[in-house]
Amino acid sequence: MHLRKAKLMFFYTRYPNSGILKIYFPDVSFNKNNTAQLVKWFSNFREFYYIQMEKYARQAVADGCSSADELTVARDSELYRHLNLHYNRNNQIESPESFRMVVEQTLREFFRAIYNKRDIESSWKKAIYKVIARMDEPLPDFFKSANWMEQLGEV
């Protein structure tokens, strides 16, 4: 259940700190090990997310796209459906519109970097990560509840 909850939280925040995690997992008695585990989950979620972004951005370059503004992400797009399936396998919540916007922005950032050949630099993704981290938003209050799953029907 905690992993499922963390995946759903990813729609709102890609870079939660341990303080945020402690607030939103009230049923966990935090210690060094399980805090590290939760932080690691989000690291893994980001890794999957960014791998998908790079893949789709490289494909757009290969397909001849010449402007990031040409790249749009709709809820029914292959990329969006793929991400939603990964983080929200059972469609427990409707992913927020803000996540679609984050996906679109991330795809555009990766496209610009690849198109402008910044990907030859060793740390080319760091600038993208900073942009996306600023797009994190507050988590809905229902995630704070120990019985958050029951509250999903009310959201």
Automatic annotation (TrEMBL):
InterPro entries: Homeo_prospero_dom (IPR023082), Homeo_prospero_dom_sf (IPR037131), Homeodomain-like_sf (IPR009057), Prospero_homeodomain (IPR039350). It holds the Pfam family HPD. Its main location: nucleus. GO terms for molecular function: DNA-binding transcription factor activity, RNA polymerase II-specific; RNA polymerase II cis-regulatory region sequence-specific DNA binding. The keyword Transcription applies. Signal peptide: none annotated. Transmembrane segments: none annotated. The keyword Glycoprotein does not apply. One of its GO terms (biological process) is nervous system development. It comes from the Eukaryota. Residues 1-153 form the Prospero domain. PANTHER family: HOMEOBOX PROTEIN PROSPERO (PTHR12198:SF0), HOMEOBOX PROTEIN PROSPERO/PROX-1/CEH-26 (PTHR12198). This is Prospero domain-containing protein. It comes from Littorina saxatilis. The lineage of its organism: Eukaryota, Metazoa, Spiralia, Lophotrochozoa, Mollusca.
